[in-house]
Amino acid sequence: YGATKAALNRFTETLQEELTQVGANIKAFAVAPGVVDTDMQRLIRDSDEADFSRVAYFQQLKERGELTNAETVAARFDKMMKQADALDAVWQDLRDWS
Fold first, then answer.
1. What gap in Å lies between CA 15 and CA 29, rounded to an integer?
2. CA 97, CA 83: separation in Å to the nearest integer?
3. Are the C-beta atoms of 47 and 64 separated by less than 8 Å?
4. What does the pLDDT look like over 60-73, one tens digit per residue?
5. Can you tell me the distance from the alpha carbon of 55 to that of 52, in angstroms, rounded to the nearest whole number?
6. What pTM value is reported for the model?
7. Which residues have a Cβ under 8 Å from the Cβ of 29 and sit 6 or more positions away?
8. Which of 1, 39, 48, 49 is catalytic?
9. Known catalytic residue: 57?
10. SS3 92
């Protein structure tokens, strides 16, 4: 999972570099939404530690109120996209867009 995320980040950086080199007026972004409170997260929190070794970590995130709901993620993404032309960084963490 982590290797795939890293590969997508690097791919996006490379894509943006190539778009810039050919003079395309297109921006590419790798967007990290943070940990989102979804049905998948509920399933993870309901798992046995034998099936998912980090279950306690995700249970603690929920207990501490550190999960973001989908509506908040969408609003942050919308805010980011409205300023996309001014952004230089390919990698965007939506937690920074509160």
1. 9
2. 11
3. no
4. 999 999 999 999 99
5. 6
6. 0.83
7. 12, 80, 84, 87, 90, 91, 92
8. 1
9. no
10. strand
